[in-house]
Amino acid sequence: MKRIISTSKAPIPIGPYNQAVLTGNTLYTSGQIALHPETGELVKDTIEMETEQVMENLKAVLFEAGMTFENVVKTSIFISDMENFSKINTVYAKYFDEETAPARETVEVANLPKYVNVEISMIAII
Questions:
Q1: For residue range 1-52, what is the model confidence (pLDDT) as tens digits?
Q2: Mean of the per-residue pLDDT values for the chain?
Q3: What is the sign of the dihedral through the CA atoms of 14, 80, 5 and 11?
Q4: SS3 call for 115
Q5: Phi and psi of 3, rounded to 5°?
Q6: What is the radius of gyration, based on Cα positions, of the chain?
Q7: What span, in angstroms and rounded, lies between the C-alpha atoms of 55 and 32?
Q8: What is the distance between the alpha carbons of residues 66 and 94, in angstroms, rounded to a whole number?
Q9: Has residue 77 got a pLDDT over 90?
Q10: How confident is the model at residue 57 (pLDDT cuts 50, 70, 90)?
């Protein structure tokens, strides 16, 4: 059985998908970009601010499912320019304890929705 997770504290999906799906003890989040949930505007002033908004969106989805970043076991990071890796990584690292950080991959891609610079999805368990 699956349960749809939805919160107004993260951006409304811009297509036929949900913010997250909980099945059993596993949560699968959709990729989040730096859309501000209240204004619907992209946060792209700096790559750091963009990444921060992505992580805050994910935090809101996790919270709605009764979880925190401690529950995350896997992340996927998609970036438009590998030159931004260290800046993205610095912001990302603020949300995890290094000793218990999740597995992850970081992939450079040609384009992302709305031509953002970073998109992140997560898998978490209860």
A1: 999 999 999 999 988 999 999 999 999 999 999 999 999 999 999 999 999 9
A2: 97
A3: negative
A4: helix
A5: -120, 130
A6: 14
A7: 8
A8: 20
A9: yes
A10: very high
Q: Which amino acid is at 23?
A: T
- How far is the CA of 30 from the CAs of 35, 59, 102, 120, in angstroms? 13, 12, 17, 8
Report the distance separating Cα 10 and Cα 68, nearest Å.
15
Residue type at 125 in one-letter notation: I
pLDDT of residue 14: 83
Distance CA 108, CA 126 (A): 30
The residue type at 116: V
Q: Is the pTM of this model over 0.90?
A: yes
Distance, in Å, from the CA atom of 55 to the CA atom of 60, rounded to the nearest integer, reads: 9
Please report the domains of the chain, with CATH numbers, ordered by start residue.
Answer: 2-125 (3.30.1330.40)
State residue 52's pLDDT score. Answer: 98
Residue 47 contacts by C-beta under 8 Å, 6 or more apart in sequence? 84, 87, 88, 117, 118
Instruction: Answer yes or no: are the C-beta atoms of 53 and 39 closer than 8 Å.
Output: no
